[in-house]
Amino acid sequence: MTSEVMGERPRDAILHAMNATQSIGEHLRVWRQRRRLSQFELAGDAEISTRHLSFLETGKAQPSREMVLRLAEQLEVPLRERNAMLVAAGFAPKFQERALDHPSLKIARQAIDLVLAAHEPFPALAVDRHWTMVASNKAVAPLLGGVDAALLQPPVNVLRLSLHPKGLAPRIANLAEWRGHLLARLQHQVRATADATLSALLEELKRYPGHGASSGRTGSAQDYAGIVVPLELVTPTGTLAFFSTTTVFGTPVDVTLSELAVEAFFPADAATAEALRRG
């Protein structure tokens, strides 16, 4: 198991401070436009008048704490940014952010460890909002043979590890397909969160080459009936094929937990399942 303290990084702290200088009206307008909602649509969802929402965005009226939280909920604003909105409106933050190894999160960490261990002999790992690996099960390490040691030094970014030319990329048989899947997923995350670190990561990953090894397969989309985008990894024992699922905490009220996800990989064919069970 690998882990790291999930404190706020210096760059994030600077961006957070910059966000805090925005007025609450600016926050509301930016998030509404990011969600591609008109004032009429958001006002209807929040059950307030369009006129009142307009006044909030222009600073002619100041929202209550409850109104800030109601609008943030309708806009699906991440908990971290909801705190910034509360501060901008003159209120104390509501959602705590604690390191994953904080005593108060012991039960949550145990739950993550149980999920990861129960998934063996198949690989699974937990990542934070920036795709930094915070935990993994025993099935992950054997798949990382040949990866440049620098990419495995904490903090390990799993997207960089996957697509970097000195990472897993040379061993991914369907790299173009897998790369397209990851970039689309990250692009969606950038649009949803407006996270500057994720945006920079996306631009970095786009610069990596997108052609991998040849596995001799005739086409993943046909092989898997177009149901999933597989990860086809060439190993000394043959090409292993996986599909992944994502698990998140339900209704979290802690910033750290709201940004955690467990990525579990399942065998996409019988040969892969058998190879992993043999170890």
Give a verbal description of the structure.
The protein has 2 domains: 79 residues, 434 Repressor (Amino-terminal Domain); 176 residues, Beta-Lactamase, CATH 3.30.450.180. The protein is built from 13 helices and 5 strands. It starts with 9 loop residues before the first helix and ends with a helix.
Entry keywords:
five-stranded antiparallel β-sheet; 45% helix; Beta-Lactamase; 434 Repressor (Amino-terminal Domain); 279 residues; alpha+beta
Short description:
With 279 residues, the protein is α+β, with helices and mostly antiparallel strands. It has 13 helices and 5 strands. It has 2 domains: 10-88, 434 Repressor (Amino-terminal Domain) (Orthogonal Bundle); 103-278, Beta-Lactamase, CATH 3.30.450.
The computed structural class is alpha+beta
Strand fraction equals 5-15%
Q: For the largest beta sheet, what order do the strands appear in spatially?
A: 2-1-5-4-3
Shape: elongated
Question: Percent range for helical residues?
Answer: 40-55%
Count of strand segments: 5
CATH class of the largest domain: Alpha Beta
Examine the coordinates and then state which fold CATH places here, giving the name of the CATH topology of the largest domain: Beta-Lactamase
The name of the CATH architecture of the largest domain is 2-Layer Sandwich
Order of helices and strands: HHHHHHHEEHHHHEEHEH
The overall pLDDT, averaged over residues, is 89
What summary fits the major beta sheet?
5 strands, antiparallel
User: What is the total number of structural domains?
Assistant: 2
Separation, N- and C-terminal Cα atoms: 18 Å
As a whole number of angstroms, the C-alpha radius of gyration is 21 Å
